[in-house]
Each structure stands twice: as C-alpha cells, then as structure tokens.
Amino acid sequence: xxxxxxxxxxxxxxxxxxxVKRDDGKNGFVPVWKRWIVERTFAWIGRYRRTSKxxxxxxxTQRAFVQWAMIGTMFRRAARPAPR
Length: 84
Fold this sequence. Notes:
Layout: H1 2-13, H2 33-46, H3 49-52, H4 59-79
C-alpha cells in the first residue's frame, strides 16, 4: 500500500522519495542521518508562530510562511560571527 502511494507521488511530481529505516540491531536512541536532517529542519520551521500550527487556509500562504521561516533561519546563521 505505502509503496504504491510513493510510486504514484514520484510519478506525478517527479520527486524521488527514499524511505530510510533504522537499523534493527541497535538498541536505544540512534539518530538516522537523513531522518535527522528532516526532523531538524521541521524544528527550525516550527520555531515561527505561523508555521507551528495549521493556521493557514491556502497552500500558497503556508508555503510562503515556510519560505519566510527558512530565510529567517539562513539570515540568523549568516549574521553569526565565524568560529575561530
């Protein structure tokens, strides 16, 4: 079922989706690299009030606020002094 949905989305949008699973042999918390990147990015976006909940009615508005949040994140990083 899930594989069919992923294949259909990939066909419709041209975006390749890769499902990353964790290693079953390890116990406890072990971050999975690609999943960690996605979760970290969602956390950065969620720091902005308008993107923390589903406030927006239109997809275009929500997309604009997500872009605004990521631009703000990039500006904050660019404004930081470089480490020595």
